[in-house]
Amino acid sequence: MQYISTRGQSxxxxxxDAVLTGLAPDGGLYxxxxxxxxxxxxxxxxxxxxxxxxAFVIIKPFVAGAIPDAELRAMIVASYAxxxxxxxxxxxxxxxxxxxxxxxxxPTLAFKDFALQLLGRLLDYFLSRRQQHIAILGATSGDTGxxxxxxxxxxxxxxxxxxHPYQRVSEVQRRQMTTVQGNNVNNIALEGDFDDCQxxxxxxxxxxxxxxxxxxxxxxxxxxxxxxxAQIVYYFYAALPFLDRGATAVSFTVPTGNFGxxxxxxxxxxxxxxxxxxVIATNRNDILHRFISGNRYHKTALEPSLSPSxxxxxxxxxxxxxxxxxxxxxxxLTRFVTGLSTEVQQVSADEWAWARTHFDSASVDDxxxxxxxxxxxxxxxxxxxPHTATGVKAAALCDKDSATxxxxxxxxxxxxxxxxxEQAGFATPxxxxxxxxxxxxxxxxxxxxxxLEAVKxxxxxxxxxxx
Length: 467
Prior knowledge:
467 residues; alpha/beta; six-stranded mixed sheet; five-stranded parallel sheet; 13 strands; globular
């Protein structure tokens, strides 16, 4: 299988090169040239598979022989060996046709573990074979950073540089990153917001001449195709039991900021999973909701919220969907995504109608998020984190068919977001045993100005010291 850039100016590459490169040289995102198709018979046969076995059969076509089957299977098994629930992604019934898929049973208590535990192993496999070192530059709105460090910190081939917006992540999220030990770990608190972090990342990838000889940049953000690939699996895993019991389709609601998680659901649907609705749940930073609900795509000021992992205005993975929306017209796509500003952009009426055949959306403010946390806890006993709460509320607002299971993706553990839980009127739950001493661990991070040059200088100095 070959991977092509959404912007059409870079040659097709193999799975290995797509994983190691992350962002295409032309600034685009890699997507598979073809998408595997899954038949009804396959869906039936997969219904009883474990999470690990299902991951293997779904991921194998994307890897396309780049890794021998036995080694790929071993990587997948190892990636989920330290999840706290044997089901890996357990399903919780809330009420009526509404469910929550608990995606926070991994080591850093967030859905990012599903992809980053695997990505770390993929990078190690390819780099050890090449005997090559790369510098990972990542940007996080809260959860990606700790999941990336946990998945990659032991690699002898990676030097890790993670940007997070200074004072714009929760304290648990920050400490999860800044207490990770390792001489290849570098945490940078950028004096800006997540969009600033992501903007610096993309500019650095576009011109890597600042790096010492022999280094290239690698990506752990969801711009890396392997992240999306791994996340496709849990859509199938959640849906298959319902389909096996006679449901004709399922629906999903996804709290999202960077569009990666829900894009994986869109691909699952394209592959053949019967999906009735895909609901985008946003907080007050609602560029995706404004586009889906009103065909208005433009930037507004990024505002801090109680769901900080969704405090994103430039949704990178939306570019992958736009490639389909514009029917592969890379020139038009490039103009659209690089023209993002406070000026409103629109697509044609037919294109907008087509987008709405795939997505519904809702925006949920902080007050409603807290009210949802309170209501669900009082009526079901289940405590939601603020991101999942936006999803549960959006699911209730957008559900079109009470006979179809509606599954909200539970993206993070509530213990990571004390402020929101306490504002909802509850005590923050204790961290699990492996994180019980988190607040006693020593932190290490560097505060830098919102400057590409400052970040590049920091990286160069750190890499020179390694030598």
